Amino acid sequence: MTAPPEKAFPVSWDQFHRDCRALTWRLNEVGPFHAIIAITRGGLVPAAIVARELGIRIIDTVCIASYDHTRQGDLNVLKGVSTEVAKLGGGSGKGLLIVDDLVDTGKTGRLVRSMMPDAHFAAVYAKPQGKPLVDTFITEVSQDTWIHFPWDTALSFQPPIRP
Ligand SMILES: O=P(O)(O)OC[C@H]1O[C@H](OP(=O)(O)OP(=O)(O)O)[C@H](O)[C@@H]1O
Ligand SMILES: O=c1[nH]c(=O)c2nc[nH]c2[nH]1
Ligand SMILES: [Mg+2]
C-alpha cells in the first residue's frame, strides 16, 4: 500500500464478537473441519471464537508478518503449518479451515492458499483486492479504509465533526 488509508472503520470487541459469530454461522454450513489454522497474529482472536462455536479443538498457526503499522513490506513466514495438521489436510489442506481477521491486498491470503490450496479460507472483513482470495467473509470495506481492531485501540476523545 502506498498512501495511508483515508477512512477509518473502528471495530469494538462487541462488534467483533458478533461478526465472528456471524462468520461461524456461515462456516457451519460448509464444514465440518478437522482443524483450524489461524494466521497470526490477527487471526488468533477470530480463530478462538470460531473454534469455540464449532467445537474444534485442534488449532494450529501459520505465523506471517508484513505490516509495519499501515505500510506493507515483504511477507515473512516465521512458522508454517505443523506436520500433524498438514497430514489431517491430506497435504492439500482439504477439510482444514484457515482463519484471519481480514484480507486487504490479498498478499497474505495468496501465500497461505499456496500452502494449502484445498483449505477453506475465512476472514471476518474483506477489502476488494483481497476478496477473491477468501471463501467466506462477513463485511466488506473499501480499499481506502483502515480497520481499527479493538486489540489495537483504546477509548479516546474525538473532536466534534464541525469545529
Ligand atoms: O491482505 P494483506 O494485504 O496481506 O493484509 C492482511 C494481513 O495483514 C494483517 O496482518 P499483519 O501482517 O499486519 O500481522 P498481524 O496479524 O500480526 O497484525 C492482517 O491480520 C492480515 O493477516
Ligand atoms: O489493523 C489493520 N487494519 C487494516 O485495515 C489492515 N490491512 C492490512 N493489515 C491491517 N491491519
Ligand atoms: Mg495478520
Overview of this structure, please?
This protein is α/β, with parallel strands linked by helices. It has a six-stranded mixed beta sheet with strand order 4-3-2-5-6-7, sandwiched between helices. β2, α2 and β3 form a beta-alpha-beta unit. α1 packs across α2. The longest helix is centred in the first third of the chain and has 18 residues. The chain is globular, with a radius of gyration of 16 Å. The model has no long low-confidence stretch (mean pLDDT 94). The structure holds 1-O-pyrophosphono-5-O-phosphono-alpha-D-ribofuranose, xanthine (XAN) and magnesium ion. This is Xanthine-guanine phosphoribosyltransferase.
Written as H for each helix and E for each strand, in order along the chain, the element string is: EHEHEEHEHEEE
Question: In this structure, how is the largest beta sheet organized?
Answer: 6 strands, mixed
How would you classify the helix and strand content by structural class?
alpha/beta
Low-confidence stretches: none
Count of beta strands: 8
Based on CA atoms alone, the radius of gyration comes out at 16 Å
- The averaged pLDDT comes out at 94
Report the oligomer: single chain
Widest sheet, order of strands:
4-3-2-5-6-7
Any ligands, ions or cofactors bound here, and which? 1-O-pyrophosphono-5-O-phosphono-alpha-D-ribofuranose, xanthine, magnesium ion
Please give the alpha-carbon distance between the first and last residues: 31 Å
Total helical elements:
4
Indicate the overall shape. Answer: globular
How helical, in percent, are the residues? 25-40%
Q: Which percent range describes the beta-strand content? A: 25-35%
